[in-house]
Amino acid sequence: MTKDFEPLIIGFTCNWCSYRAADMAGTARLKYPPNVRLIRLMCSGRIDPSFILKALAGGADGVLITGCHPGECHYLEQNYKALRRVKLLKRTLAPFGINPDRVKLVWASAAEGVKLAREIGVFVEEIRELGPLNWPARSTPEINPVVEEVEEVAG
Amino acid sequence: MAENKERIGVYVCHCGTNIAGVVDVEEVARWAKENLGDQGVVISKDYKFMCSSLGQDMIQADIQKEGLTRVVVAACSPHLHEKTFRVAAERAGLNPYLTELASIREQVSWVHKDKVVATEKSKAVVAGAVSRVVMHEPLEPIIVPIAEPTLVVGGGIAGIQAALEIANAGHPVYLVEREPSIGGHMAQFDKTFPTLDCSACILTPRMSEAGTHPNITLLTYAEVEQVDGFVGNFDVTIRQKARCVDTDACTGCGICEQKCPKKVIDDVFEVGLGYRKAIYTPFDQAVPKYPVIDRENCTYFEKGTCRVCEKFCPTDAINFEQEDEIIEINVGNIILATGYDLFDARRIPQYGYGRLANVFTSLEFERMTNAAGPTSGDILLRDGKTVPKSVGIIHCVGSRDRNYNNYCSAICCMQSLKFAHLVDERTSATVYNFYIDMRTPAKDYDEFYQRVLDEGTLFVRGKVAEVTDAARISGEEGKLIVQVEDTLAGKQRRIPLDMVILSAALEPRHDAYETAHKFGIACSANGWFTEKHPKLDPVATMTEGIFIAGAATGPKDIPASVSQGSAAAARVLSYIERGELALEPVRAMINQEQCSGCRICNDLCPYNAILFHEDQMVSEINQALCQGCGTCVAACPAGAITGTVFSDKQVFAQIDGLLFLEKSALVPEMA
Amino acid sequence: MSDKPKFAMYWAASCGGCEIAVLNIHEKILDVDANFDIAFWPVAMDAKYKDVEAMEDGSILLTLFNGGIRTEENEHLAKLLRKKSQILVAFGSCAVEGGNPGLANFSTKDQIFETVYSTVSTENPDGVYPQPSFEMPEGTITIPVFEPVLRTLDQVVDVDYYMPGCPPESHQIEAVIDLVIQVLEGKAELPPKGATIGVGPSTCCDECTRTRNVKKIKEFRRIQLVDDIDPDLCLLEQGILCVGPATASGCGAKCPTAGAPCIGCYGPAAGVVDFGARMMTAVASVIDSRDPDEIDRILDGIVDPAGTFYKFNLAHSLLRTGNATWNGK
After folding, report:
1. Mean pLDDT across the stretch B214-220?
2. I want to staple A49 with a disulfide (CB 3.0 to 4.6 A). Which of B188, B217, C271, C277 is the partner?
3. What are the residue ranges of helices labelled H in B266-361?
4. Domain range for residue A61?
5. Residue C11 sits in the same domain as residue C98
């Protein structure tokens, strides 16, 4: 069923580490799956659960959050805040029926282009395994299908 | 959002074939014009090299002729050319922050092969940048004036070098050192590799220059307690520990030290090999010359009587009542050159240090070979009289070892070769070097290695398993036996020796994390201070106005430490000369009306930029202290904190844009 | 009928508390009567839908609509009242952001019916489930269809103003009524369309009198399980998950003042996209640990994160529903 499914993933990167790792992956011509679209933030501490929810609601099948390794944050320790937020968000996603594994936090320093490329590959396969999320809000800002569905149920 | 007054220009770069070889750039440009018109795209072009002057001219001409209000360039990483296009926009009269660089080279053409997929992804990346740029705001850089004085923390060779460079350029420097004298580790050494210069001979002139320089305020036996403020305007609180010596009266004659009846093992300068008095200067050439009373060991402070030093002092300089003094200074920049600690060789019990008398650390050996040291430069066993007939030097003790430190300590190979040479020069002993790899990359280093080889030192390639005094065969009795796999010979060897020297690793200062936190900079996982960029900005940190130099950033030899001291000074001097600094306006701000004073954000800022006003029960962000990480923006439950350059609106818009392709693809199904 | 402007109030998927709140404004209710002709208010007076349908479009000046949209009937009335009203106010948490009934969006329609019609507390031996239409000897009878999700009023029709609260506080209702009367008299102007009215500019903490310090949370506790609550100290600092920091001000911090944590009925502060996300990020930020295992242990103290953070806001959050509600049967 999910054979032709190409996951769509939004990735958040830190300006100082993982975004540079992505640059480095590029410079080194490393190949990774094209399913990830990256957004640059100044720090993983800028990660707001709203961003992740927005991406999932907007059509992403998974969200990858990347930051500096613990103890190596360019802003000292903000990545721990990202860690705690992601942990709590994952707990909150479960009751929504969203597999928390659709959200993943990966540490990648500026020197770890290889690791970032590898982690992207791994995550794309993990999401492929989970299948499409197809969040309805992606296609229904006005919620018209509901009415159709209602009629169907009614009939 | 429906009514969009913006006029956006999209420029897709071929980057020669770097992008165009994989991405159909013309298609991306065409698609943007056709599909992103609702968002305000009025022009969309592709060009061979957007960053060339012709490419920039094209953008500038369009801004002026077509009245563009926003510019998106789809090209390389913003870390390469963000500034280029900002400046181009500014030249055309557009606020530089109304541009956005979409990376379709590093993130698309260089990492993907399939042309169709790469082109589709490029469209998404461009759509993301277009949505985002609409939300950009015009910004102005933040200008801060730079106070002239500089604080240098750490009076080792790197700190001395930095202080002298700045002082010689005519600017005031505060040089703070926590020991009673400047000089650092270099003052403990006898010879320096590979030239075998006398360490003291080359260091002490620098020390006295620093001590007497009219532009340098020397604060030894002092520590920085607190740092407030930001680049250009740091308020620093320094604790001057009580010396119990009135430095205005003291002449440094040394009579007090001679007369003091209390001998104390000197754990710091003589690394436990020698004694000092309870009132002391760490070494003869100490700068400043004033002694300090070690209150923990002084008989008067212990028992209430003695005061011998006071009786003999010819200038009445002894003052037992002296108290710590708090000194507050204002500086524009800070250089941290706080050095390293030596790895504690006791942590590797199988090497026997602390248990087997004739196992020495590298620093102990340095002191032993020093003419001013505890043995007056004679190489002797722990008994203080026997000259060793055989000496083994073990490399990489605590370095390149996953049980302790993965990194290479950089100096140990050369230091060990130096030791081998000194043993050879001063005794007739046989010398063994036990090494994993020889690393002698700098100028004249390998030549020195060849010289030591020629002198007859024996080299065994292999990691030493054990140093023991348990003899198994005749000839081993009373000796230290080094058990090692000789990987070149391919066999286990037991080599009986009189003396073993451990070339111990260099480690970050035990309090490096606290220091980093105090100054608002970061440490690597190992504990070394983190550079702003390891290659291109090795003496700057993420915190503007705080620079780093010497071994505090990682193991370094003397030439490298001196170079970094000079480099940090050069960076500071350029700030001082400019008189003011333009900071990137990536900042967070709190809307005072929306702020409920819940205090969630108060402890989140590593730079202490968030202040809480008790009277009004609201929090506020100091714009100059804020470094723009955005953590508080993301944390504010009331949405009262906004951040420039990476605002919620910008990120939301970018998410929408990145997903635009899929959304638009779904529309027909919906209808 | 007089030529006074017409007023309407309607009750969709909600508990009725909003109606009580309007009656709870005491003598002020007389001002409503003095200034308005009550055209339609099923709770207070008899009226038929067909009477409303017969009205001219835009003939009702002000409609306070409370409750979310859960059934076809709710939807029909929302659309009808939108057409007939000049000013449509989403009144109370349910209409504004779904409210407690919105929490049902975590469950599918089948799950909801199962809970209601077949769990142990229900006496339903024949397993009868509601049918939208049923043939009787007298003819076909129908009941409104239960829609698969609960929607907020503005997810169904265009809304002019939002007035949150479960229910909105009486003093805020009074203030809004005063304002509308002043507008009628030409003494004041209406706020811009889309504004949230009857709230303060900040969040609940702004009105809370408890002492607040820099926050560091080492554990979360459930208020019903502890008896050592300091009456003067911020509840969140005591490990009680009070969502006041994220909740719009305007209620006077009633719950925390009375010793109970704020549960968020006044909705998010102005400009906030997702209430739950704001509260999640805030508490996660101030958890006092860097150790992943300890963080997990601390988070274990939040027993029902989704229910806690989205108690009122689920239907208006970014995700809006549970996954099965949409993608399940």
Report:
1. 97
2. C277
3. 299-303, 308-312
4. 9-154
5. yes
- Residues B488-502 have a mean pLDDT of 97
Where in the sequence is the domain holding B70, given as residue range(s)? 8-139
B659 and A117: CB-CB below 8 Å?
A: no
Which residues make Cβ contacts (< 8 Å) with residue B595, sequence separation at least 6?
A: B618, B619, B638, B640, C202
A14 Cα to chain B: minimum distance (Å): 9
Domain membership of residue B580 (yes or no) is: no
Asked if residue C329 is part of any domain, the answer here is no
The mean of the pLDDT values for chain B is 94
Domain extent, residue C216, equals 204-323
Residue B339 has pLDDT above 50, yes or no: yes
Find all residues with CB under 8 Å of A80, minimum gap 6, and list them. A70, A73, C290
**Measured between alpha carbons, how far is C174 from C168 in angstroms, rounded to an integer?**
10
Q: How far is A48 from chain C (nearest CA, A)?
A: 6
User: What's the CA gap between C277 and C283, in Å, rounded?
Assistant: 10
Domain count, chain C: 2
Which of the 8 DSSP states describes residue B380?
-
Whether A1 is in a domain gets the answer: no
pLDDT digits (tens, 9 = 90+) for B589-621: 999 999 999 999 999 998 889 999 999 999 999
Taken as a whole, chain B contains a residue count of 671
Chain-chain contact of C215 with B602 (C-beta, under 8 angstroms):
yes
Answer whether residue B551 is part of any domain: no
DSSP B656: H
Chain C contact for B597 (CB, 8 A cutoff): yes
* Amino acid in the structure at residue C142: T
Over the stretch A109-135, which tens digit does the pLDDT of each residue have? 888 889 999 999 999 999 999 999 988
Angle ∠(A59,A65,A71) on CA atoms, nearest 5:
170
Asked if C202 and B648 come within 8 Å (Cβ–Cβ), the reply is no
Which band of pLDDT confidence, cut at 50, 70 and 90, is reported for residue A137?
A: low
In chain A, the number of structural domains is 1
Q: Which of A96, A133, A153 sits opposite C322 (nearest CB)?
A: A96
Do B14 and B134 reside in the same domain of the chain? Answer: yes
Decide if A137 and C319 are in contact by the 8 Å CB cutoff: yes
The enclosing domain of B637 has a CATH number of: 3.30.70.20
For B605, which residue in chain C has the nearest alpha carbon?
C285
Q: A50 and C322: CB-CB below 8 Å?
A: no
* Distance, CA of B132 to chain centre: 35
